[in-house]
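Good morning,

Both structures are done.
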Amino acid sequence: IQWKTDNGIVNGTGAGQPKGIATSSAIVTVAKETSQVAATINANNVAKMFGRLPAGSMANSVWLINNDAYNQLITMTISNQPIWTSPNEGMKGSPAGMLLGRPVIVSQTCQTLGTLGDIYLVDLMAYRTITKSSGIEVATSMHVFFDAAATAFRAIYRMDGEPSIQAAFSPSNGASTLSPFVQLAARA
């Protein structure tokens, strides 16, 4: 249930499932660097992604990354200063560390390294969900598979969601559109 919920929030189509961040018209895509090597993420990429967040989303934002991308974050620097910091205090706050001061969440809902959707910078406070008030409905039946001496289990969880904004917006002063949902373009 957790996997389906997380995947719907990130990749959902909106048809019989939540409208996902990746399929939303509100997402902003940051272009790769000129002549950037395939299947890489660099410090300029993440700096430009951070620059496309609205000011109100910066304090709430988190990085969502694929497992394949994690090792590239650990060595990132700007002017010989690391921009990824390791987890501290027993890994309580952010087990995958912090990138530009924001928590990193490693998720299999993200695409593989180098493809669109391998890294996101998102403000999940700008994503709205609703669930059925009864929560998860669980039922068992020994009758369904009686002849096999087995019990059937069923769980039903109803939820829906979508970004709270419909499109990226232009700031009153600035040239680039902003959004609480930012992704990096493919680098293949």
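Second structure follows.
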Amino acid sequence: MSGVSFRPIGLIVGCLTVLMLGFQNCATDIQFSPDANLKADPGTSSDVPGSVGQNGGMLDNPESSNNRDNSGSPAPSEEDDAGTLLPPNPVAGQQPPREVICDPLAPSSEMCEPPPSGGGGGSSGGTPPPGGPLPPSGGAPEPGTSPGLMGDLYYLSRTAHGDLFDGNLNNAHLDDYQEFGTKTPFAVVMTQVNVTPRSWQDSFTSNMGNTVVDDQDNVLLEWFSLRLSGQIKLPAGSYQFAMISDDGMRVTIDNVPILNHDGVHAPALDCASIAVSFNGQDAKPIQVAYFQGPRVEIAMQLLVRPLSEDNGRCRNDGSWQTIPASAYSH
């Protein structure tokens, strides 16, 4: 009987011993020091608030990234099992660069030409009309900007959008392309808005060699729209603007629509009824919207002339000048 009476005591002692050893191990693993910096899991930052993850790491941290080392520099590329160099992981929240289509409506020999060093008219998009180029407007874009205007490319198709316009895309207007059309994933850059009236049967091809097609895999030659924006800077003075378009086109400068000839039509000259003044130092915001209806004739020109009393009527009398590429930036 004496042996039986001691068994519960021995069992209790054994359990207490196990618990104390376990607590000692836990105390050894979790040590806090007021002078030590807490270390988060790899790829996290310990000094940015966030939610604690399963392994103690920080979640929802906009500055954390698995492709940076302790110095904040991008981590080097890794190699796969075959020894092929792999690109580093993308930074969290950062979008990959878009493919670019540059001067798509200009002849292929004139695409993406940089502005002359002296800030002259440039040759992209056709020959300037009589009157000669404007004086240089600075020769180079402002710091932190790039040459030309930049924007998006939209299109309408008979299969996807025909019912919206009673089966006839000729009924579509400028804003319909942005509101109802399909936006392509490409960015468009135009170094000048100077596409003279011409036949255009090329295609939109990106800097990666990809050709834009519609929802039926047809090369995009008609029923497309360009929406461009950026800045324009001219020498000090007051100017009148004009445009030649085929088809619809609208120009807004300093948030004021100065030119608007919407709808499907043959090449036509339109002149602004209000003047725009520049101080020679500051650029003004500009937006250009254009759409091409049925193939294949196009025109998309923005022209200017110094304001004077003898400008005369709105006609192509040789007083209009091509705006140099150096005047545009984005």
